[in-house]
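Task: complex structure prediction.
Instruction: return structure tokens for all chains below.
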Amino acid sequence: MTPEHSTALVAAEDETLHPVPDPGIEEHVERYSDVDAAAGNRAYRQVLACFGLVPILAIAFVVIYFAVPARATFHLLGVNWHVHSTLLGLTGGLAVLLIGIGAIHWARQLMNDTEVAEERHAASSDEEQKAGFVQKLNDGIADAGVQRRGLLLASLGGALGIVAVPALVTLADLGPWPVAATRRETIEKTIWADGVRVVNDSNYRPLKASELEIGQLVNAEPESLLKLHGKEYQNAKAKAALIVVRMDPNSIRIPESRKDWHVGGILAYSKICTHVGCPISLWEQQTHHLLCPCHQSTFDLGNSGVVVFGPAARALPQLPLKVDAEGYLVAQSDFTVPVGPSYFERDSRNDFKDGDR
Ligand code: FES
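Output:
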């Protein structure tokens, strides 16, 4: 092959590999903060100011959280604003915004912005390349001002750390710490009690055992709920919602420990799904199955409400029933196990007695 042929071949190969000419890197333009020490120092102070304001805003957030009345309002632009949440939003949001502005300003004005092009190469590196990488990394850290600008780094760390304090303070809004005693008085207790009548939840008429037919399902609630109002009513109703079903006693399985909980095949269960708490009343009369529309958990009401399908992890709690002197359905007690979704601290050992299952 002649030298002319060889040169032509390389040029042709090069054209195949690089059909678009490499434009190279544009000429580097120095920033003011690079060429003017005063501008550099000004940017440095601006970044510090951004990070330095964050602790002040975080402290203001905490003070406002406790000092400003939750219901105070003010009128502006035709809208009624809640002072508490508006001030919390402003201080908390501004703190996070300043961290972002400070970090971006630091990167744009103070870190090294020299453009570098790196050729693609084999994925694995030899020892020399690894050493070169470590050297470049160290040079980059030095260029970014991480060592030189120690105060910037410390202020950023401090700002990020203190901005977590307002977030922690707001956890107090989640309510009392759920120790066992608190749980017993809140989520593990409903207003069902001995002698409380079961009423239809749409017309509030007490349910008479003799009026229920086999296969019928009624959405119900405790009669005592009607005396409550507002938040107390909502809280009580959410936990005490009930479904009452009548089945042929010969077609269902009633464990020994629950044989006195039904009235001639009339059984009552919590209406709150034990998965994540949807109200349930999709009733399949023939199979005795109750289906939750949210995630399809299916409970067998003819077998103590056990789960036969779906994500729910435990049976529907059953309410022990009896009839009063006038033949109306009443509770024997509260539920014997907590209603609603499970939670980590819940003790499921008492859901069934030994030999029931
Ligand atoms: S809430 Fe009932 S299955 Fe999820």
